[in-house]
From TrEMBL, chains A, B:
PROSITE patterns: HTH_ARSR_2 (PS50987). This is ArsR/SmtB family transcription factor. It comes from the Bacteria. It comes from Paenibacillus hodogayensis. Residues 1-94 form the HTH arsR-type domain.
Length: 109, 109
DNA sequence: TTGACACGACACCATGTGGTGTCATAAAAT
DNA sequence: ATTTTATGACACCACATGGTGTCGTGTCAA
């Protein structure tokens, strides 16, 4: 039943651009081993591995060993928390709100 | 016309729980001065002020001086970037994907 | 005019973060 | 059997982050 062992805040996990690129890469493929992911970046294998660990801690990534390689795949469901959070503020950037902010700014001058 | 001077990554700005609480507080009121925001937290005024500075750098907050106080208000529109980003991954946590992940996990055992 | 209040600007500090390099080991290829 | 590959586990380092306290100044109230 897909327990969410969230050792790490999802907001924190997606804050880093490298980790967002990892998520994107994993979204475009079924499974990718660490060494294939590493060549996509300009940093060492250890650094990429650390980022993947953080994504794992947030539940965004699953891994399994196949032979001598470790293959990673995306588990996007924790992102629902982000979507729910941002959806709440949806109404605050409607056209009406933009007009209101403009009026308040004019008022200041 | 509301230039987005984004000195700071919005993903980074919302990564901190204190800053998300600030956003929530500002969403529930028109304008709130720093000292009123400060009493809501268990940290000093300087710390809250720093968080607000980061939110300002991300364009999520506007401020203006009124007398001796500095009043802050929310500008939610940069959150659209978050919504657009997360919307892309929407299809990855559909029911079908959950079933697929379950099947892959069973396969591993 | 005196005092309290709200704030910005610092200096400061412990800890976290994002990177590096190295070493040992298991698996695959030769 | 030997060598190459892929990885995990470390130790290490520079710098960012999230907090503190203090000082000076403008503003409001008594």
């Amino acid at each position: 039943m897909s327990e969410n062992n969230q050792l790490r805040d999802v907001f924190d996990a997606i804050a880093d651009p490298t980790r967002r690129r990892l998520i994107r890469l994993l979204a475009e493929a079924e499974e990718i081993p660490l060494h294939e992911l590493t060549v996509q970046f300009e940093m060492g294998r250890t650094a990429v591995s650390k980022h993947l660990t953080i994504l794992k801690e947030a539940g965004l990534v699953l891994d399994r060993k196949v032979g001598r390689e470790t293959r990673f795949r995306l588990n996007a469901s924790p992102l629902r928390e982000i979507q729910d959070w941002v959806a709440f503020y949806n109404r605050f950037w409607s056209t009406n709100m933009l007009r209101l902010n403009q009026l308040l700014e004019e008022e200041e001058e």
